[in-house]
Design brief:
The chain is an alpha/beta fold. Helices cover 39% and strands 16% of the residues. The protein has two domains: 48 residues; 141 residues, no CATH class.
């Protein structure tokens, strides 16, 4: 764990920090309470040493997340959601004149069959959805892709065609101008549209619910 590391070596292995990160997220424990939780647990687990809250924060903030990519071709749902950088409400802004800190934007690709996330990227609110299609799906074997109208851009269709998906399930915008010779493809998309929209929403619902429940009071600044 200290290979190629500059400065003071780590005292706690990566697996221990991962355990602390899961405890922090799912039990909603601030870092000081997490330190106390580990101290109490050390009496029941031989060899368990509690880390101080500063170490927990620093290591957890730099924890690398390795999401396994499926080996087989999958149907993916791609979507994004925005979350506030802080959990303070509108009352704070109204009474104290605090400017809004902006939003973070979470872009996610989810396996429709298993509903497991297979890739995600975090950007600021100015990044468009279609910009993130290639970073999300570049290493994924895609059989089909379900996306809403925000991805109805030429670059997204070109990328999906390069992945071998001739007619991805991208919802066509109402004001889109369809080129000659593509009416049949448009009709097929409309026929599948309702079903694909529902599968997209269902696949993304679980991930968004998890993000809303585990987002800390203060998130990353961009």
């Amino acid at each position: 764990m200290n290979k190629s590391k500059n400065g003071r070596p780590y005292r706690y292995p990566e697996t221990f920090i991962q355990f602390c990160g899961l405890t922090y997220s799912f039990l909603h424990l601030p870092y000081r309470q997490l330190e106390g939780f580990l101290q109490a647990s050390s009496g029941f687990v031989p060899g368990l040493r509690s880390a101080d809250y500063t170490t927990l924060w620093q290591r957890n903030s730099n924890l690398e997340l390795n999401i396994p990519i499926p080996d087989n071709d999958v149907v993916v749902a791609v979507a994004s959601t925005c979350m506030k950088v802080t959990s303070r409400g509108d009352w704070m802004r109204e009474k104290h004149g605090v400017e809004r800190k902006g939003w973070i934007k979470v872009h996610v690709a989810v396996d429709v069959e298993t509903r497991r996330p297979i890739a995600f990227e975090i950007t600021d609110e100015r990044t468009t959805d279609q910009e993130m299609v290639e970073p999300l799906l570049d290493d994924v074997k895609v059989k089909d892709a379900l996306m809403d109208g925000a991805y109805d851009k030429e670059d997204a269709f070109k990328f999906m065609k390069g992945k071998g998906v001739e007619m991805p399930g991208i919802k066509i915008r109402k004001n889109a101008i369809v080129k000659a010779g593509t009416q049949r493809a448009e009709k097929q998309r409309k026929e599948l549209g309702s079903l694909k929209d529902m599968r997209l929403k269902n696949a993304f619902e679980d991930f968004k619910s998890l993000c809303d429940k585990t987002k800390p009071a203060r998130f990353l600044d961009f």
